[in-house]
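Duplicate of #3305? Posting structure anyway:
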């Protein structure tokens, strides 16, 4: 931070002395872009409040193929829902990274919930699940969409009865488990194993990280353009994104209030407060992954955002900071936006560089 300031000062002095028009921040950033063509240990230091740095997707873990096959069929089976109209795949669609093309996904009889469907790529890396982190294992989670009246509106018993009635499942359970006992924990385990098997195709950022690790900087320069490397630099430094969006998922797996509670308004969502009941958790949501971001089309827990530039500008203003009005001044539940979000200046070129970097994820 200090270094950037002193460098841009130096650049400005330079343009005053020589009487030429040089965009100081652009100059600083293009130097920075070069600094990423070095081993990661020599990159410019990341934001001082960031615990972790950016990371490539890890190698796939070894899975049980028979369980994956069984789980895949269950995941796509509408027979698991109360009126046989909706499967997991109705909302988690393969062609959009297992998220949904719609902001809100219709469950049985077109019923709509309040939150947008997260993508399922890299889902095995999460230690906390759902937008409000209300559960922490995939196996335990599956019962929730199954029984949610707005999603599949079924019961575990009815789902097991349905599965047992299908000859194809009796055979598949026998192949996967060695006997034909059909139980909910077994079905849930298979569906979880299928979700963990969803591939996470490498993105330009991952190829860049591999090239950096191999110290093949010609290759690194090929896979991430100068503009994209400038964006990486901004992401790790003055824009402060890496404080929360870090690791392979580009999430710190923590909860933050970024000011999108819509407190007292139509789209109000109290986030983790609904689980913990603690006032400090009002409006806290899990940091979402930024992977495959530019190929998804609506963002945030409520899916109300569709413009990445708009999101970047909101962050540059220090995030959304609603002010309490009238009686809200004394309301202990009035949401407080995290202090980790602080305003920063971003030129038009820098905005484009940051967006270009986000598209490599
Ligand atoms: C009607 C649409 C719908 C259906 C059907 C549905 N989901 Fe979801 N899914 C969602 C929504 C919306 C969320 C986010 C809910 C929240 O965070 O409160 C979600 C969240 C999840 C998550 C958490 C992902 C994360 O990043 O934390 C997993 C895993 C998941 N669903 C798996 C499934 C499985 C397995 C099924 C079938 C048994 C299923 N879903 C059926 C809409 C649906
Ligand atoms: C204080 C932690 C924090 C910082 C810093 C931060 N984010 Fe976020 N980000 C979040 C949280 C939490 C959400 C989800 C908020 C919600 O849904 O209400 C989010 C959501 C997003 C989303 C929507 C993703 C999706 O799948 O819906 C994008 C895009 C995003 N952030 C980009 C950025 C960028 C770019 C920066 C840096 C300029 C940044 N974030 C800085 C915590 C942070």
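Output from current build:
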């Amino acid at each position: 931070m200090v270094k950037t300031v002193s460098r841009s000062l130096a650049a400005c002095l330079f343009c005053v002395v020589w009487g030429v028009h040089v965009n100081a921040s652009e100059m600083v950033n293009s130097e920075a872009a070069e600094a990423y063509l070095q081993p990661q240990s020599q990159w410019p230091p990341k934001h001082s409040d960031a615990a972790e740095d950016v990371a490539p997707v890890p190698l796939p873990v070894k899975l049980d193929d028979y369980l994956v096959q069984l789980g895949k069929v269950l995941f796509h089976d509408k027979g698991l829902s109360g009126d046989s109209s909706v499967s997991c795949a109705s909302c988690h669609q393969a062609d959009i990274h297992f998220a949904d093309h719609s902001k809100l996904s219709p469950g049985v009889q077109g019923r709509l919930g309040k939150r947008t469907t997260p993508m399922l790529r890299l889902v095995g890396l999460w230690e906390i699940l759902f937008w409000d982190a209300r559960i922490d294992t995939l196996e335990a989670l599956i019962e929730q969409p199954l029984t949610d009246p707005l999603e599949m509106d079924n019961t575990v018993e009815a789902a097991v009865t349905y599965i047992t009635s299908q000859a194809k499942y009796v055979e598949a359970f026998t192949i996967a488990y060695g006997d034909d006992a059909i139980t909910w924990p077994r079905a849930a385990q298979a569906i979880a194993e299928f979700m963990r098997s969803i591939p996470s195709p490498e993105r330009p950022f991952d190829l860049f990280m591999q090239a950096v690790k191999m110290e093949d900087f010609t290759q690194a320069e090929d896979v991430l353009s100068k503009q994209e490397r400038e964006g990486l630099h901004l992401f790790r430094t003055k824009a402060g994104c890496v404080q929360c969006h870090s690791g392979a998922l580009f999430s710190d797996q923590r909860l933050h209030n970024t000011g999108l509670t819509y407190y007292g308004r139509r789209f109000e969502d109290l986030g983790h407060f609904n689980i913990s009941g603690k006032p400090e958790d009002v409006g806290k949501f899990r940091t979402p992954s930024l992977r495959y971001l530019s190929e998804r089309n609506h963002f945030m827990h409520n899916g109300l955002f569709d413009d990445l530039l708009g999101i970047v500008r909101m962050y540059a203003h220090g995030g959304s900071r609603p002010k309490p009005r009238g009686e809200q001044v004394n309301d202990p539940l009035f949401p407080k936006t995290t202090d980790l979000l602080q305003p920063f200046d971003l030129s038009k070129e820098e905005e484009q560089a940051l967006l270009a970097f986000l598209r490599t994820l």
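Confirmed duplicate; merging threads. Strands lie at 255-256, 285-286. The pocket of heme C (ligand 2) is lined by residues 239-241, 243-245, 256, 258, 260, 285, 287-288, 290, 293, 299-301, 308, 311-312, 315, 338, 340-341 (CB under 6 Å).
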